[in-house]
Specification:
transport, mainly alpha, Glycerol uptake facilitator protein, about 240 residues, Aquaporin Z, MIP_CS, channel activity
């Protein structure tokens, strides 16, 4: 008998998205908060890449493994994902990221002298950029890198792509993106990742988080609109 493709319920898909986004924020931001001084930018970049890689194989078969509102928007614009599912995915991703941020705060508060004023893995520009990059630099980097992240995702998940390697390729792409942009903005390319920790870091990170919502969404939409024109339809 032919093997049947499993059909997952909406609740299962949203649960997988929440868990995957929780894992991304816990692993990536957690590494930055707890081990950043030991592993450096390279270690943090690898942590984000590894969370996406492992999450894609663990939860991707259920939900598609977006773990990022910008990815969901880009896939919807490219007609790889149903618009009607977008609101539920975004809410699930924000819930997963926020719970992860709360867990990180709980753990981090267990050491004497902890303060979120040290950054708490938040994104920022100007004085809140790791290397002091201004708003323009941060917007350009976030839009461009999110667009290329979507190009990689769309290409790696296309029917013509090598089967079974998409999670590895996407994880490596996110690692590269972090290697480029941690000094610029502390790397977002993911509104849920940014909001998940910004909620708990005080007024300044929250006042700048709009950039890390808007710029990734713009970059994702650009890639979604232009992918088929530039690289061909996914026949």
């Amino acid at each position: 008998m032919p093997e049947l493709t499993p059909v997952h319920s909406t609740a299962q898909k949203l649960g997988a998205e929440a868990l995957g986004t929780f894992w991304l924020v816990l692993g990536g931001c957690g590494t930055a908060i707890f081990a950043g001084e030991y592993v450096g930018f390279v270690g943090v970049a690898l942590a984000f890449g590894l969370t996406v890689l492992t999450g894609a194989y663990a939860f991707g078969p259920v939900s598609g493994g977006h773990f990022n509102p910008a990815v969901s928007v880009g896939l919807a614009v490219a007609r790889r994902f149903a618009w009607k599912e977008l609101p539920g995915y975004v809410v699930a991703q924000l819930i997963g990221a926020t719970i992860a941020g709360a867990v990180l705060l709980l753990i981090a508060s267990g050491v004497s002298g902890f303060t979120t004023a040290d950054g708490f893995a938040t994104n920022g520009y100007g004085d809140h950029s790791p290397a002091g990059y201004n708003l323009t630099s941060v917007i350009v980097a976030e839009v461009l890198l999110t667009a290329f992240f979507l190009f990689v995702i769309l290409g790696a998940s296309a029917k013509r792509a090598a089967v079974g390697f998409s999670g590895l390729v996407i994880g490596l792409a996110l690692t590269l993106i972090h290697l480029i942009s941690i000094p610029i903005s502390n790397t977002s390319v993911n509104p849920a990742r940014s909001l998940g920790v910004a909620w708990f870091a005080g007024a300044e990170p929250l006042s700048q988080v709009w950039v890390f919502i808007l710029a990734p969404l713009i970059g994702a939409a650009i890639a979604g609109f232009s992918y088929a024109f530039l690289l061909g339809d996914d026949d």
